[in-house]
Design a protein that fits this description.
12 strands; single chain; alpha+beta; Jelly Rolls; globular; Arc Repressor Mutant, subunit A; 14 helices; about 325 residues
């Protein structure tokens, strides 16, 4: 995503960081509701987004009170955190639906929920999306639980048209509709993230990295070559800083040491090779420069929390839960 051709995008650190972030599956729904109404979305291992297409509503997450969303606003929950939407805080929790997005093959366009025919109508576009990265991937861990974009329709005027195109694909039920929907959702997710970053809606993670030229260059370099065995000295050279100054700055901005970040990224790449590409453990070990399969297996288990043989023999999906937690 965010693979733009402009000079700004081509040189911006965030472009390199997000280059490998793609969607692999989309569930979609358009809801038309008349007040009073409420929808509850349980926690899921998928990203979820909502776009408010007609009249505003209210949003609540597990750790934050109700906030107002206006027409043209959007929210993205990268890790599928539990949340609720309602016509007003007073309308929740009844009437309420435990809402699930529909697989695109079902062809469901509209779900109507709500109180009475005379109530104000709100139109929501929403989707559940699977990223191609493990939930423990450093890139996803740097995301906040909630990204909230105000006036997205004004800043990104193509968004309403893309959402209508998704609806049209479902209505036409043509060959390849699932792939088209995934690509459209990929563009929408990229626009959401770009808008959130450009408006500086956060002070940590991506935004902090994007605003810090030195750390931004370092993260861009790491994500360009995720399998390289980066040393702290080599990364400090990228930042044009001393080893100690770089290590301290990186930890303050990113929230972990450079060595830990690199190790996590490398082992997440290894996990993808094992699960997605079905490579042998010995081949993965050689790719990462380990002298022996045993040494690689020890490092892998220390970071991921399970031996590589678990993923090689079971074919566990990239987002599956690990049998035991990683060693701190």
């Amino acid at each position: 995503m965010l693979d733009h051709s402009s000079r700004y995008a081509a040189t911006h650190p965030l472009t390199e960081m997000l280059r490998g972030l793609k969607l692999e599956g989309v569930e979609y729904k358009r809801c038309r509701m008349t007040a009073p109404w409420g929808l509850s979305f349980p926690a899921r291992p998928k990203a979820q987004f909502h776009f408010i297409a007609g009249r505003g509503c209210w949003l609540r997450t597990a750790d934050k009170p109700w906030v107002r969303l206006e027409e043209g606003d959007a929210v993205l929950l990268p890790r599928g955190a539990e949340h609720a939407l309602a016509s007003s805080p007073d309308a929740f929790p009844a009437p309420v639906g435990n809402c699930q997005f529909e697989p695109v093959c079902c062809g469901i366009l509209d779900t109507c929920v709500g109180g009475n025919r005379d109530g104000e109508e709100t139109v929501l576009f929403g989707a559940g999306m699977s990223f191609n990265l493990d939930s423990q991937h450093p890139l996803l861990l740097m995301m906040p639980e909630l990204m909230q974009m105000h006036e997205l329709a004004t800043d990104e005027p193509a968004i309403p048209h893309l959402l209508e195109a998704m609806t049209a694909e479902l209505a036409l039920d043509r060959v390849g509709a699932g792939g088209m929907l995934t690509r459209l959702a990929d563009v929408i997710a990229a626009a959401l993230i770009r808008n959130w970053v450009e408006k500086g809606c956060g002070s940590a993670g991506w935004v902090a990295a994007a605003r810090d030229p030195g750390i931004g260059r370092v993260l861009a370099a790491i994500h360009r070559e995720p399998t390289r065995d980066w040393t702290v000295e080599a990364l400090a050279e990228v930042m044009h800083a001393s080893r100690s100054a770089f290590a301290l700055r990186f930890a303050n901005v990113v929230g972990q040491t450079p060595a830990r970040y690199v190790a996590q990224l490398r082992m997440q790449e290894a996990k993808q090779w094992l699960v997605r590409d079905r490579l042998k453990i010995a081949i993965v070990a050689r790719r990462l420069g380990y002298e022996s399969e045993a040494a690689f297996s020890r490092a892998f288990k220390r970071i991921i929390g399970a031996p590589p043989s678990h993923f090689r023999t079971t074919g566990a999906a990239a987002g599956d839960e690990r049998p035991d937690g990683p060693t701190p």
